[in-house]
Amino acid sequence: MKAIEIVPKVKVKNNKILSLVYTPGVSKSCLKIKENLEKVFELTNRSNSVAVLSRDYELSKKRAIFLKETRTTDAYPLVIRECSDDDLQMVIDAIMPNFMGVDTTLMKGMPYDNDEFIPTCSKGCILPESLKIDDMEPVELRSAFGGVIETEIKEVIDFRKPVAIISDGTAILGLGNIGPTAGLPVMEGKAVLFKELGDVDAMPLCLNTQDVNKIKKIALLLENSFSGINLEDIKAPECFEIEKFLIQNSRIPIFHDDQHGAAIVTLAGLYNALNLVNKSINKIKVVISGAGAAGQAIARLLLKAGVRDIIMTDILGVVYQGRNGNNPSLEAISKLTNKLNLKGTLEDAIKDADVFIGVSVGNILRPEWVETMATDPVVFALANPTPEIMPDLAKKAGAKVVATGRPDFSNQLNNSLVFPGLFDGVLNAGVRIISDDIKILAAKTIASMVTKQELDYDYIIPNPLDKSVAKNISACIIDYVRNLTTEFNKRPI
Asked: What is the pTM of this model?
């Protein structure tokens, strides 16, 4: 059986290439497109990408294969539920940031091998063998390759639909609301990591709408095109509403990586950091800078894992109950954290803290504040591309263990350690809802891959390019689900 495979144009063979394809280098391509939207055709594969839309996935797949074989077009099969003409047009308009056009010939009853096609302007990838990718700048690399993903036709026995990487462009990395077109390089980079690390096909789907209700409707109308949905770079609090709605109404697994991927990899790093400084997870004080999607998810997962004392801060200062400016999600998280109802600033909150976790903005944590933390403090400065404090400054101020989200420093806490293996596991195990137990299991699996002999202040987490991480996470999830099923079947009726 033939199928469409979504593959990288660039093999991520080392951390340097990882930083070019994904963070922090990808932000440069995003900003170039933000300055000039036409650059998207040069810096992504949009110039050769077409969506094939029909009511029948197998028919869309046949059409996509036909276009690839006869036109070398990267065609992505999509299937849409029965809907009104207005909703159909809404979907077509919304998915356009990813494609040169949407092929609707199948919707008109034409055969899959009809000769009508949407022209593309791909520059191809015929590059000199002497080209050294490692020496390229991020924008130069994407320009040379015309983006970093493409499609191939492969023979398969067991076909699995791709995971959709859905974003509205409202919270792209640390760049904020730069829109879906400028955010496309990030989603392409994400698709590369899905395939390279977890052998999971993933399709970027940047939506040209920031209307929450439209995003929810579009995801459900296209649901049968995908095996799962990875929500990406959608700002809070809208991301919470979208995720909750899709979990309740969709039949496929939903995962918001900015929340739960960040939470899982943070917990994994914390397990090993606490082992190094000989502190118990239920006796530490944690301060989290950034109370958006990532910060709130990290707080909730740490509480599930046994942390009892968490204080969160944001642009308004310490988050506490009844604070002016709290939205419903902040008010809800304030009831679970800051038990003493402390008020003030990050400087006030961080005194005597054992752990600082930053998912906010660069250079917000001053060295003199680190000096006021508890003995042997742990500092996770995860803002990208600029961390809340540079590692050398944190260490000089007394931090015992320091981690960032960047590959050019030790201890990179990157979500790429999580989502490839997690999705491979839940899809193979038939999991629809990704529970907290599965998230904690994934964190413990990642942490366990650093042996006692290897564990060091500069090595608390596996390399993001270690493919065995994804394999182990996947295997642990499959075993967990199998054991749950076995125990369920053992129960007396």
From this structure: 0.93
What radius of gyration, in Å, describes the C-alpha atoms of the chain?
23
Q: Is the CB of residue 222 less than 8 Å from the CB of residue 154?
A: no
Query: Which residues neighbour 400 within 8 Å (Cβ) at sequence distance 6 or greater?
Result: 276, 277, 376, 377, 378, 457
Token pair in block for residue 436: 């907290």
Closest CA to 286 of 300, 275, 305, 299: 299
Tell which residue, 327, 172, 317, 169, has the closest CA to residue 237.
327
| Span 413-423, pLDDT tens digits | 999 999 999 99
- Give dist(CA 277, CA 286) in Å, integer: 14
Q: How far apart are CA 330 and CA 10, in angstroms?
A: 40
User: 123-153: b or e for each residue (b if 16 or more CB lie within 10 Å)?
Assistant: eeeeeeeeeebeebebbebbbbbbbbbbbee
State the Cα–Cα distance between residues 481 and 431, nearest whole angstrom: 8
CA–CA dist 340, 36 (Å, integer): 49
Chain Cα centroid distance, residue 456:
27
CA distance 296 to 198: 27
Q: What does the pLDDT average to over 48-66?
A: 96
Which has the minimum average pLDDT: 156-160, 295-299, 332-336? 156-160
**Collapsed DSSP state (helix, strand, coil) of residue 338:** coil
Of 235, 228, 239, 225, which Cα lies nearest the Cα of 419? Answer: 228
Could you give the residue numbers annotated as active site?
Answer: 190
DSSP string of 110-126?
--TT-S-----------
- Report the b/e string of 197-230 with b at 16+ CB within 10 A: bbbbbbbbbbbbbbebebbbbbbbbbbbbbbbbb
Distance CA 412, CA 463 (A): 8
Angle formed by the axes of helices 85-95 and 212-221, nearest 10° = 100
Q: Which residues sit opposite 202 in a β-bridge?
A: 163
For residue 117, which amino acid is it? F
CB of 11 closer than 8 Å to CB of 151: no
Amino acid present at 446: I
**316 vs 198: CA distance, rounded Å:** 39
Looking at residue 128, what is its pLDDT?
52
Q: How far apart are CA 217 and CA 84, in angstroms?
A: 12
Nearest to 284 by CA among 352, 369, 335, 371: 352
Tokens of 259: 């929340």
C-alpha distances in Å from residue 405, one per residue of 90, 359, 388, 391? 36, 10, 11, 11
